[in-house]
Amino acid sequence: VQLQASGGGLVQPGGALRLSCVASGITVDRYPIGWFRQAPGKERDGVSCISSGGGKIVYGDSVKGRFTISRDIVRNTVYLQMNDLKPEDTAVYSCALIPQAGFFCSSMGFYESDYSHWGQGTQVTVSS
Predict the structure, then answer these.
(1) Left if phi > 0, otherwise alpha if psi is -120 to 50, otherwise beta: which for 30?
(2) Residues 56, 33: Cα–Cα separation, whole Å
(3) Eight-state DSSP code of residue 116
(4) C-alpha count within 13 angstroms, C-beta hemisphere, residue 9
(5) β-strands 33-38, 45-50: how paired?
(6) What are phi and psi of 39, to 5 degrees?
(7) How far is residue 68's CA from residue 49's CA, in Å, rounded to a whole number?
(8) How many alpha carbons fall within 13 Å on the CB side of residue 21?
(9) Nearest-angstrom CA–CA distance, 57 and 36
(10) Tens digits of per-residue pLDDT, 53-78?
C-alpha cells in the first residue's frame, strides 16, 4: 500500500491549488483517507478526511468553506481543492489512510494514531 501526494507549489494569497493523493495497493473508496499538514516548528494538524464510500466528510475548522476534499475512483485518487489560500496555510501537506475498510472519519477530530501509510508530503507555500 502506498499513498503519494503531489500538486503543491507557490501561490499568492487568495489563490488556489489542487492537491492529489494517488493510492496504490488499495482502492480509495474502501478506506477513509485524510489530509494533514505541518508547518515549520508546529505540530501536524488534520485538514480533511473523506470516509470509505465518501458518505461522511470532515474538515478542520481553519479550512471550512475554503477547502474541498473529493475522490476519483477511476483514478484511485483523493483530491484536496484549496481556495482562498492564506499565508497561514503554508505547510507540507500529506495524506494517509485509516486502515479499516468501511470505516468513517471521526467527527471528534483528527487522531494521527488512527492513520497509517503516510505518503511523502508536498510543499504548499502561500506568499506574495
Answers:
(1) alpha
(2) 11
(3) B
(4) 11
(5) antiparallel
(6) -90, 155
(7) 10
(8) 32
(9) 14
(10) 878 999 999 999 999 999 999 999 99
